[in-house]
Amino acid sequence: MTKRTEGRRRVVIEAVKPQIDGGLFPIKRIVDDKVMVEADVFADGHDSLFCMLKYRKEEDGEWIETPMQLVVNDRWRGEFTVHELGRYLYTVEAWVDRFKSWRGDFVKRVEAGQEVSVELKAGAELIKEASNRAQGGDARRLQEWAGALRKEGKNGSRSSSLVLDDEMARLIEKYPDRRFSTVYAKELIVVVDRKQARFSTWYEMFPRSCAVEPGKHATFRDCERRLDYIASMGFDVLYLPPVHPIGRSHRKGKNNVVGCGRDDPGSPWAIGSEQGGHKSIHPQLGTLDDFKRLIAKAAQYGIETALDIAFQCSPDHPYVKDHPGWFRWRPDGTIQYAENPPKKYQDIYPINFEIEDWPDLWQELKSVILFWIEQGIRMFRVDNPHTKPFVFWEKVIREVKKEYPDVIFLSEAFTRPKVMYRLAKLGFTQSYTYFTWRNTKAELTDYFTELTQTEVRDHFRPHLWPNTPDILAEYLQTGGRPAFMTRLVLAATLGANYGIYGPAYELCENRPIEAGSEEYLNSEKYEIKHWDLNSPHSLKEFIGRVNRIRKENSALHSDWSLRFHPVDNDQIICYSKRVEDPVNGILIVVNLDPHHVQAGWTDLSMDALGLGTHQPYQVRDLLTGAQYQWQGARNYVRLDPQAVPAHIFSVGYR
Amino acid sequence: MTKRTEGRRRVVIEAVKPQIDGGLFPIKRIVDDKVMVEADVFADGHDSLFCMLKYRKEEDGEWIETPMQLVVNDRWRGEFTVHELGRYLYTVEAWVDRFKSWRGDFVKRVEAGQEVSVELKAGAELIKEASNRAQGGDARRLQEWAGALRKEGKNGSRSSSLVLDDEMARLIEKYPDRRFSTVYAKELIVVVDRKQARFSTWYEMFPRSCAVEPGKHATFRDCERRLDYIASMGFDVLYLPPVHPIGRSHRKGKNNVVGCGRDDPGSPWAIGSEQGGHKSIHPQLGTLDDFKRLIAKAAQYGIETALDIAFQCSPDHPYVKDHPGWFRWRPDGTIQYAENPPKKYQDIYPINFEIEDWPDLWQELKSVILFWIEQGIRMFRVDNPHTKPFVFWEKVIREVKKEYPDVIFLSEAFTRPKVMYRLAKLGFTQSYTYFTWRNTKAELTDYFTELTQTEVRDHFRPHLWPNTPDILAEYLQTGGRPAFMTRLVLAATLGANYGIYGPAYELCENRPIEAGSEEYLNSEKYEIKHWDLNSPHSLKEFIGRVNRIRKENSALHSDWSLRFHPVDNDQIICYSKRVEDPVNGILIVVNLDPHHVQAGWTDLSMDALGLGTHQPYQVRDLLTGAQYQWQGARNYVRLDPQAVPAHIFSVGYR
Hints:
The structure is a homodimer.
Chain A: E1 11-17, E2 27-30, E3 33-43, E4 49-57, E5 64-67, E6 69-72, E7 75-82, E8 86-96, H1 98-111, H2 117-133, H3 136-152, H4 166-173, E9 182-183, E10 188-193, E11 200-204, H5 220-232, E12 237-240, H6 288-300, E13 304-309, E14 312-313, H7 318-322, E15 338-340, E16 343-345, E17 349-350, H8 358-374, E18 379-383, H9 390-403, E19 408-412, H10 417-426, E20 430-432, H11 441-453, E21 462-464, E22 467-468, E23 471-472, H12 474-494, E24 497-501, H13 540-552, E25 563-565, E26 572-579, E27 584-591, E28 598-601, H14 606-609, E29 616-621, E30 627-631, E31 636-639, E32 646-651
Parallel strand pairs in A: 2-10, 11-12, 11-24, 12-13, 13-18, 18-19, 19-20, 20-21, 21-24
Antiparallel strand pairs in A: 1-3, 3-7, 4-5, 4-8, 6-7, 8-9, 8-10, 14-17, 15-16, 22-23, 25-26, 26-27, 27-32, 28-31, 29-30, 29-32
Helix pairs in contact in A: 1-2, 2-3, 5-6, 12-13
């Protein structure tokens, strides 16, 4: 295009959505998703426009085009499907459709009984021009059409059947004059992930606590024997805290005390010893081959293994000797250990990213991720990503996913909202959320409306954890077993991605190290635990049932359809998810009060449920099997936390 | 900056506001406005940041800097004042403030009773580094400070008074390490206009109808005699429809009939004859000197003259002969006249912008604007800008305002909302609105909330017209004199910019050409009118009173403070405007029913009025002089359309 065309571009394209921060970051989708794109498209005057959505795989040269339709008020809409993993680009192009403008005016003239012979000639000229852009049979047919119109354009013509020939209109649409078309200034990006990016069920477990014999340090072989148990609860991801050699220097003892006994195993997050660093296996767990055997066995159970990426070092990590420049040195000649003043973590050295030779550092850290990918890992839970530079993650994730687009990065950033969102924008596939501390109906409604009904959802995929090894939420400390059931149902149904830290969770472990603290008493981070998996109080069967419901109901495989429904009792929360094709609707009712029976009347949005206003319908509780015949929005619910504190209703559709 | 620094930029800057379409278009302010800028600014980790707002006149090289303050949740805010006409740029720069981070941590350590000798040495190093960036006395003082800290850093130190020295902290703040600072990627633009861009009171009048003798074509000299009348009503802008020679070919007769009599004067918008085009004066009005005399006289009355820019031609316009390529030719060898099928406007040729030599055409059209600027005109009402390419206006307005930043362009685009907004974004100073057709409380509330309380307000300055020569709104046709009073009060108080087409308005001319039409019967567009300015029914005194109230109350000089207050009667609308410094609060109550007395109870937002919840206060009706003692939100109002259908209350503040 020469500059001479600039003055003739009459169409403007604005407000293209979805779009994150002016196109600076990609939106996220999974394979086979439809990407719906909207734009404000208009020109001066009253001409008809043609508006085209264009998309392509980033590495392909050729755009694929699909027409957009006018919705209302200059808003146009189109969509395309992303069939492959990786990055797609999309943009919008539009132009004045002179033939359609002419045809529209022509119809109005004829309806007004005006003389149209000159107009017929003008139309013939437009068709002739289109024929020049066409080839072969199409060119010939357009020429013939133009000729016929010209013939009709005798003086005094007041109509023409030829103008309204739809087949010809479709033909001419194939050969538009795009010399002065406007292409939207930005090429927007979609990152396409695999299905597990949107729907996954995680189980976090310390491998060293899997031994049959109490007090013994377990091996990966022991973990293999735990797989059947994990699979029986319906989890499809096994997430392991760091499996690397653990430092000796300043190793923490039980309950995080400074100084430790000879047998204290240390925190797995104090990574590195003379036995190796981030690319090594802690010898007490086994060998790299054992590790690979475990992930292969897990795969046989339909369980994928996720690894922890914690970029920090124990004082004994080989990096400390080999790359002293990667750490922060204090004026007294020691290396700065991790701190959050006044708290001190002497067993951990943070990596200093503010260094001259950051490119070497980044290269090495990236190689850690690539190393584990080469061992078969495709899911990483990234520890505290918000304490490393944003640009680092942006570049590393981009480069890794360029080669391995199936890799999933879960951001464990419990920090300020804008920081969490930024990490999602720059590339993390899934993200930890504030769910862990959102307990009341108002808190849950507000937060999950923000996550699922605003533009946040285009980049931020929530991953819900009712507990973690670091966080025994207060609600769990005080609510007993019903609290654990409630929080599990909430996590499993509010979030298509959720996980628990077990067996602490299913065994309802709820003792904090001290009142007011969220730290577990005798935290598994600092000692080997022996869990009684066969305790009669275990929630394993309940969890298995909930996860089976998740698996069997596609409405629970995504979050965007989430809708909250009013209930006239603040202790009862009610929400639904629903998908089409095939239709599946799930209505969840949860008693948030773990101590008392609560009852109330719903005020369901029948529209969100896909039901007519007064239609009778059946709801079946997938947890208990109970069935109810309901009608309309108003229905009675009553939940006893000592029995089951929640309904997960399947909504019956004819 | 070398690429080596990229990996060390830890701060990110997002969501800088105000910002229009990702910085594609400028925001608008007037001289001496404060521009408040906000941004999300954060880094990885927990370091303290320093955040700087930067601005400059576009043509100046040097940025001026002013620190921003943290508001909440990583949101920072700063402001600067625009003192001059023209374009300013603004952006944000931020960096990690290592000294402040260190000092904050130091305080926590001391509070926890920790040993801090090494920390004191680390702080001394930071201060030493800052001293290297300083000169002269500052450098020396920083060095001394560093030395003192180093001395205090003896083994076993547990505190230091020197660290908390605020004067030293301010000193070190002058010498930050900005090597790895982040500068926001965009330089955003403010266009600064003169005060009249935000607050102006327009009177549209056909100069040819100002003759003393009925039926006679008036001259500019006659118009001079009309100035006293216009000034007495308090208008400060006199807007004249086109004053150029009017074409003869296909001239329209009375009431827009095809074919006209010998004496029919034709539409002033059918511009151009053998006597000249857009740079000429219609001979019957006088000479260019007469025109300049009129605008000089008007200026003596405090009235500025606004001219109409209507880029279209009568068939007799010199352009038709000199530049036949600037028009659209039909297959029968005639030029395409204006049409909106099936409607035809044979007396007007639109200009064809879709031509090869558009640069010449644009140059000539721009020269029309410059011509009138050279004659002393600084306000242009642009006719139908939405039928000319957006890029044309963008370039022309930009170029004109570069040379003449005091020029005001009013966009007369009654079309779809996104088109109207685009014209405002690309450079129009003020814009016609849908006010003309917004009559009910809900319509007015919704529309003016959108215009004044959303981001629209940063680029779109509403200009309200209750009537125009083209539009006799239905409400005015049916509501009698009270309707004219109501709509005038609404326009004058909802919009800091408003105008009327007179004398039709003040004389309550309300006869349409036919039922269901908004066209005036015997429209002044096609004939010379003789108005009885002394009619006892004239609203001239009422209008004068309203405009005096506008002038005297600064709350009515801008729109952003507009707030609507509930009233328990849908026929009564209530709203307020309020400014500080000095404080001025105006509360408007209007009866929208021109036929009946309406009464109701207000539910005022005391906060918006700047009053305490239960505070008694006085309201004085500036229209009638009546005073009321009110208290709290709930007050009784009653309005008789046959008397005065509105209150314009001055709210009393102690």
